[in-house]
Amino acid sequence: MLQLEQVSKNFGGLPALDEVSFGVPQGQIVALIGPNGAGKTTLINCITGVLPATSGRIHFRGQPIEARQPHQIARYGISRTFQNLKLFPRLSVLDNVLTGLTCEGGDSILMAMLRFPYLRHRERQLKLRALEALDRFRLADKAHWPAAVLAYGDRKRVELARATVGRPDLVLLDEPVAGLNTEETAEVAEQLKRLRSAGHTLLLVEHDMELVMTVADRVVVLDSGRCIAVGSPDEVRSNPLVLRAYLGQMEATT
Asked: Residue 159 in contact with residue 190, Cβ under 8 Å?
């Protein structure tokens, strides 16, 4: 579904990504791991058009997207969450999730102001989809709460609901369990498995190795901007280059 070919990104002549190549098969969870500063979030930003790649090719379903703008890439069926929460604190939980359906809103501001019946019907349909997404993440009872009053774990789930409400083909998750406790992390792991079962393809950036080894079908390892390993969780866990990059941290997961 997603194919990266020698993707590089330089900042002031310094390489953040150095000819990274790997693929994300349809219907799988692919985990992107690596030490801090390895280039994981930079790669997510290049895929989604937030940052232009310095060189290389990015294909989604066979179409080149490396020169596309973020809103164009979103319309292809790619959504994401963020390493740092990007919610609208003064909007309700429901309205935050509705922003994930912006690409399906259609029509101009003038048409929206005229409030034709078909537009009102579309709004009702979009709200129903947003409520269904909130229900999947057990947030329906908080739909009208301001996002600012939610606990941190609930805010994370709002981001997941917003990223999946548009039924995207590919979801990019940037550290979805960062800051969550063990129980909340286990719940997110089950939600990720359900998303895969529902037909979503996931690219997961994560530091929690237990979560990665539990849910991922394939693992891609970055170190200093370079791809040093690609394989199954078991293959990556025993790779000496990966063990060296993590200074032995992954041994704790065996």
From this structure: no
Q: pTM of this prediction?
A: 0.86
Spatial separation of the C-alpha atoms in residues 9 and 182, rounded to whole Å: 35
Task: Report CA Rg, the chain.
Answer: 19
Predicted confidence (pLDDT) at residue 247 exceeds the cutoff of 60:
no
Domain parsing of the chain, residue ranges: 1-77+168-254, 87-166
Phi, psi of 204 (to 5 degrees): -110, 115
Confidence of residue 113 (pLDDT cuts 50, 70, 90): low
pLDDT of residue 107: 60
CATH 3.40.50.1820 fits 1-77+168-254, yes or no: no
| pLDDT recorded at residue 143 | 96
pLDDT at 109 over 70: no
DSSP string, 175-191: STTTT--HHHHHHHHHH
Residues 6+ apart with CB under 8 A from 72: 49, 65
SS3 236: helix
